[in-house]
Design goal:
globular; alpha+beta; 232 residues; four-stranded antiparallel β-sheet
Length: 232
């Protein structure tokens, strides 16, 4: 049987990019080279998509005035979101820096065109949202490529999609999926921020894997392999 695995060094690089990807909020002022950004966007554009519909677009936002408007909206929504927490948890939430809209080198809004190559697209007859899932795959590609290039990425989700639609002039059939901040950072933390600060616990891999149906644990042997893999 032909061995289709990548060479060991390549494989390790893939796993390292996945393990060391972080959601970044604090950025350096250094500009991001256009060539580097182009490579990152190419990786995003190479994502798999349902029926090969490639529903994404990437809105590169450098204009400071526009970014300031978006930042103002996010600030308002952040304060509204704080009302959903109480006491110490609310104070802790407000202490977090949750975006780098103005600090990062560039902002990118990743969108999904829900009409592209439609109305019939292979794979979307019963699962209409697979175009959005495909766009999320492009976001993940972008994130991993950026990490490999030493570029930090932060996903800003504290915003109203319709407000963003108005600010960026999206037509009705295009929906915003991810608003991202990209730029160089001082360092990538060893563990995710919300894990190290105790906001939420990390779920062990073995607790996330079922066998042949919801809630059914895999064999003891495989469970031990999952636990061992999780330790690395």
């Amino acid at each position: 049987m032909k061995d289709h695995r990548f060479p060991e060094e390549w494989r390790q690089g893939v796993y390292e990019a996945i393990a060391r990807r972080r959601d970044m909020r604090v950025f350096k002022s250094d500009p991001l080279a256009s060539e580097t950004l182009a490579h990152i966007l190419k990786a995003a554009h190479q994502a798999g998509s349902v029926g090969y519909c490639q529903p994404w677009n990437f809105i590169v936002i450098e204009d400071k005035e526009l970014r300031s408007k978006i930042h103002g909206h996010v600030t308002e929504e952040r304060l509204k979101a704080a009302e959903g927490f109480e006491g110490e948890q609310r104070e802790k939430y407000l202490s977090y820096k949750l975006e780098g809209i103005l600090d990062s080198a560039v902002n990118i809004c990743v969108t999904c065109d829900r009409t592209r190559f439609g109305p019939s697209v292979i794979g979307r007859n019963t699962m209409k949202d697979t175009d959005i899932y495909s766009t999320c795959g492009a976001v993940q590609n972008l994130w991993l490529a950026a990490r490999a290039e030493g570029v930090g990425v932060g996903w800003v989700s504290i915003l109203e999609p319709e407000k963003l639609r108005a600010l960026l002039n999206f037509p009705d059939h295009v929906v915003p999926v991810a608003y991202l901040c990209l730029g160089y950072v001082e360092e990538f933390p060893e563990k995710p921020l919300f894990q190290t600060t105790g906001w939420l616990p990390r779920i062990p891999l073995a607790e996330a894997v079922y066998s042949n149906g919801w809630g059914q644990k895999p064999s003891e042997f495989f469970q031990q392999l999952l636990e061992k893999a999780d330790e690395k």
